[in-house]
Design a protein that fits this description.
The protein is an alpha/beta fold. It has one domain: Rossmann fold. The chain is about 40% helix and about 15% strand. The protein has an 8-stranded mixed beta sheet with strand order 1-2-4-3-5-6-7-8, with helices on both faces. Helix 3 packs across helix 10 and helix 4 packs across helix 5. It starts with a helix and ends with a helix. The relative contact order is 0.15.
């Protein structure tokens, strides 16, 4: 346990300049892209622009040992920011360590495209893989933050559409409840070095587009029926406003007789596995996620 590393990271994140008032979505996107560009991308992968489900995507492949299977990756960014590029460091680490290729989807963003546009893109991407003859049992959904939420809601939507389930889900610090009713939304206020309830309320409104959040595709942590879901790995830190999104989804999965691993790490920030090389816990978490993926795809 790297207490000094975690403390130093927390201090660094708290020292980041904060805007003095509301900023435009364009500025938020620029700031997010700048922040994420500081994460080094492994040289052990290649990147190729492709199309998936009529949306742009990036094919990320390992240069070393390869295993069969496909990761369908959903980037984070509060459903209104980000791209495959902003999540590329995390995606590349996972591909390099698992040996499994990834397709990272550039789904549509709010407010230009509010709910359910991004979810529709995720489902279309999954359909695209199946239509290409790829076995559902050789596909794992992976995502971070908002993208972690999409791993779950895309699975819900796929099940409603009568599609076969993927082999597994991996969600890093997923956003799974737009009602924002988790206790950690209040108990972790001020402890979370990256987010506030006020900021999350604003981006949440952009995504909702006036819709009622109390529905399974917007609050799966409290409303989704997970019966028949594939095995799930949830990784989350104790310093997060979104902590209880993962905790409550794990409980729903357990009650639905779904295999679930709730991987909770103390005193680390949102999407802590992205901080490979900065805190030991990030490297260890990526290794555990890669192991989970390869176990789900065994013999494929």
């Amino acid at each position: 346990m790297s207490r000094q590393q975690r403390h130093a990271l927390d201090e660094t994140l708290r020292q980041a300049p904060q805007p003095s008032g509301p900023v435009s979505v364009e500025r938020m996107r620029e700031g997010f892209a700048h922040f994420m560009s500081g994460f080094p991308i492994s040289a052990g992968v290649t990147r190729t622009p492709v199309e998936l489900g009529h949306r742009p995507a990036v094919l990320v492949e390992p240069t070393g040992e390869r295993r069969s299977g496909t990761i369908l990756y959903f980037h984070g960014g509060s459903f209104s920011l980000g791209s495959p590029e902003t999540a590329m460091a995390l995606t590349a680490h996972l591909v390099e360590r698992s040996g499994v290729r990834a397709l990272s989807l550039d789904y549509r963003l709010a407010p230009e495209h509010p709910f359910p546009a991004g979810l529709d893109d995720g489902l279309a991407a999954y359909r695209g893989l199946l239509d290409d003859g790829i076995d559902s049992a050789s596909i794992v959904f992976v995502g971070d933050s908002a993208g972690g939420g999409l791993t779950v809601t895309t699975c819900v939507a796929a099940q409603e559409a009568g599609l076969p389930m993927p082999a597994g889900l991996v969600a890093f610090s997923p956003g799974l409840d737009h009602t924002r009713s988790g206790a950690s939304m209040f108990t972790k206020e001020g402890i979370d070095p990256l987010f506030t309830r006020e900021a999350m309320a604003r981006t949440g409104e952009l995504y909702l587009g006036g819709r009622n959040p109390a529905q399974p595709l917007l609050a799966p942590a409290i409303l989704a029926d997970l019966t028949g879901f594939p095995p799930i790995l949830l990784q989350v830190g104790t310093n997060e406003l979104l902590l209880d999104d993962a905790v409550r989804l794990a409980e729903r999965a357990r009650n639905a007789e779904v295999d679930v691993i709730l991987d909770t790490v103390a005193h680390v920030p949102h999407v802590f596995p992205a901080f490979v090389g900065t805190i030991d816990e990030a490297d260890e978490a990526i290794d555990r996620a890669a192991l989970f993926i390869t176990q789900r795809l065994r013999n494929r």
